[in-house]
Design goal:
alpha/beta, single chain, 238 residues
């Protein structure tokens, strides 16, 4: 049992806590394993999960247009491509250089529908992310929720949404929890991958982000998805 636990723990670069380890140990051994037992074994082996860092706060810009908080923290979706969340987060690499990751998350299965890593936090980054998501889910018109970042409040973004018959929803000012699952994904990505490494080039960062999102979508099990990965849960729903 300890060997199985340690193998999984090392595979994910020592990031999992007892909850995630329990899910993956159950899947690998096909046995009923109590999370309390895993917690005790972790204590015996002197291992623990990594702790997430707090997200930086940024000043708000004057919006061109805003939308109501239609989502209203109802983070449940009955089917794929019904409710999407989106946001942009920052990474550093090299000698103080910055990269920006834009992504769209489906609330039904918490999968990452699309993402774009760029060197600038601008409208093309966000617009391309939405276009890729719509290509991945043709003939769908989900609600799209975001914060009030300048890209999402731009008239160009509103035009893109209207052109695809999508309902726009926005978080209230200063209420990060209104976009909670998206914030949670950023924390998971940075905690389980980004903070563990030092990146010298944009390409190194991009490769690790691509690898992690694939792992997250296809392999990382979630208790809220009945112990399945996002793609497994999504496939069953379809």
């Amino acid at each position: 049992m300890i060997q199985v636990m340690m193998t999984i723990y090392e595979k994910v670069e020592r990031t999992f806590g007892y909850r995630q380890l329990t899910l993956h140990m159950r899947r690998q051994t096909e046995k009923i394993i109590n999370h309390k037992r895993v917690k005790r074994l972790m204590k015996v082996m002197g291992i623990q999960s990594v702790i997430r860092r707090k997200r930086k706060k940024y000043a708000n810009s004057t919006p061109q247009q805003v939308a109501e908080n239609v989502l209203n923290r109802n983070f449940h979706a009955d089917a794929p491509n019904e409710k999407w969340l989106t946001d942009v987060t920052e990474f550093k690499y090299g000698n103080g250089q910055k990269a920006y990751l834009s992504a769209i998350l489906d609330l039904h299965d918490k999968s990452i529908v699309s993402y774009v890593l760029g060197r600038s936090n601008n409208n093309p980054l966000v617009f391309q992310t939405l276009k890729l998501a719509l290509q991945a889910a043709p003939e769908s018109s989900p609600m799209l929720h975001s914060d009030r970042g300048y890209q999402y409040t731009s008239l160009g973004f509103k035009k893109l949404l209207d052109g695809n018959k999508m309902v726009q929803s926005m978080s209230r000012v200063g209420r990060c929890i209104d976009n909670g699952p998206m914030e949670s994904f950023w924390g998971t990505l940075k905690c389980e991958k980004y903070y563990l490494h030092k990146y010298h080039t944009f390409e190194e960062l991009n490769n690790d982000i691509e690898a992690y999102i694939h792992f997250y979508n296809y392999e990382r099990l979630q208790a809220k998805l009945n112990g399945r990965s996002p793609v497994e849960f999504r496939t069953k729903a379809v």
